[in-house]
Specification:
Layout (H helix, E strand, L loop, with lengths): L1 E7 L2 E9 L5 E11 L5 H16 L11 H11 L6 H22 L8 H13 L5 H20 L26 H10 L6 H10 L3 H5 L6 E2 L4 E4 L2 E6 L5 E6 L9 E4 L2 H21 L22 H14 L9 H12 L4 H8 L4 H8 L6 H12 L3
Antiparallel strand pairs: 1-2, 2-3, 4-5, 5-8, 6-7
Length: 385
């Protein structure tokens, strides 16, 4: 085995020459990312020596000859139990609808993949399927994970996703409801099945999955506390059929949190509990016994589903001609309202259960846009000029 430095299209490349397990001569071109101009030759030579040492220290095996789509499916199945169910479902959706059909159509094998193939795939997603740049970034992340696995297991000599430019992330204006909008919404859902979920979203900024995961033992009516300990999510069985799953694994460690039970919410929950008892008596044997511990159930005891919350919320907004928003935007509206009430980003992070300060800052930085005007007003009142 030996290596050399070559140039192509204005860049230095490391070329490793080796024999595969069948004794055939092979070459592997590795892009350094260094332009041939600007005195980069020494840096490129250093990378060359590092790659030669790297290849000498491992038993290089011939890359897998199966189609990349087949390898991706195998990788996905192998990692099914290593990620959250919701994450796996997202990967599975990408695989079935986009990744596997595209690469099968190109008849590309794992060891045939080049950076340009990945870039063409991203272009296809952006321009032919009209996916947003932020969604394509998610495709980039999952492909990179898959190919990193291939690299670590020596099916390929490098992760080509490291040489691919992913789309630039788009930061959109998040939809926030003002205080008047929230009050109008609460009046609209009064007495509706969505009243309890909306109240939890508005007052506590809970995620949809966290709201549906609330059980009666999550509420301590003596100590007046609410604990977030589980969630309800959409999942799929082995036949691909949509099912509802209860999971004890929340999005992040910060998602496990406790709130004080607000008096008016306590009153409403006690009334809701009484309503459930009356419904059980009225419907008798037809009342569902499966979700007796859960708070967000309909008149016959059936658990409200994530899709039901989202779709019914949209219908209510349209019917009552409310300000356009999604159910998830109620969580953002809670955070925005906390900011307006004077709470800082760190406090809001803890309240909403964000894993990092940066996440909270990203969501609510634009809501702080008026702080300069407030400072200027205060200074004009204080300084004589």
């Amino acid at each position: 085995m030996n290596g050399s430095l070559q140039t192509k299209k204005g860049y230095y490349y490391v070329v490793i020459s080796y024999k595969n397990d069948k004794g055939k001569n092979k070459q592997k071109w590795i892009r350094t990312g260094l332009p041939t101009v600007g005195g980069n030759k020494r840096k490129a030579e250093k990378i060359l020596h590092e790659k030669i040492v790297e290849f000498q220290n491992i038993d290089f095996i011939s890359p897998d000859k199966s189609l990349f789509s087949t390898f991706f499916r195998d990788w996905l199945e192998l990692h099914k139990d290593k990620v959250q169910t919701s994450t796996y479902n997202g990967y599975l959706h990408m695989a079935k609808k986009y990744i596997c059909p595209y690469f099968e159509g190109k008849n590309l094998k794992l060891d045939d993949l080049r950076p340009i193939d990945i870039e063409r795939y991203y272009s296809y997603l952006l321009h032919e399927t009209n996916l947003s740049p932020n969604t394509v970034i998610k495709h980039h992340q999952v492909l990179r994970r898959c190919l990193e696995y291939a690299y670590k297991n020596r099916f390929v000599t490098e992760n080509i996703c490291n040489y691919v430019d992913k789309p630039r992330k788009q930061f959109s204006e998040y939809s926030f409801l003002e205080l008047d909008d929230i009050n109008e919404l609460l009046r609209a859902v009064k007495g509706h099945k969505l009243e309890i979920p909306v109240v939890f979203a508005v007052y506590y900024g809970l995620r949809r999955s966290e709201i549906l995961g609330l059980t009666w033992d999550s509420i301590n009516f003596d100590d007046n506390t609410i604990k977030i300990r589980q969630k309800v999510i959409r999942s799929f069985d082995d036949d691909g059929k949509l099912i509802i799953e209860v999971s004890k694994t929340l999005k992040t460690d910060a998602s496990y949190r406790e709130f004080p039970l607000i008096p008016q919410i306590k009153t409403r929950l006690l009334q809701h509990k009484q309503d459930i008892s009356e419904n059980m008596e009225f419907f008798g044997n037809t009342y569902s016994k499966k979700y007796l511990d859960f708070i967000c159930v309909d008149e016959q005891g059936k658990l409200l589903t994530p899709d039901y919350l989202s779709s019914t919320y949209k219908k209510i907004v349209k019917k009552h001609k409310l300000r356009k928003s999604s159910f998830h935007s109620l969580r953002h509206s809670c955070g925005s309202l906390l900011l307006a009430l004077g709470y800082d980003i760190k406090q809001i992070q803890g309240y909403l259960g964000h894993a990092s300060y940066a996440t909270t800052l990203t969501y609510y930085s634009h809501a702080r846009s008026g702080f300069k005007e407030n400072i200027a007003d205060k200074l004009s009142e204080t300084i004589e000029y």
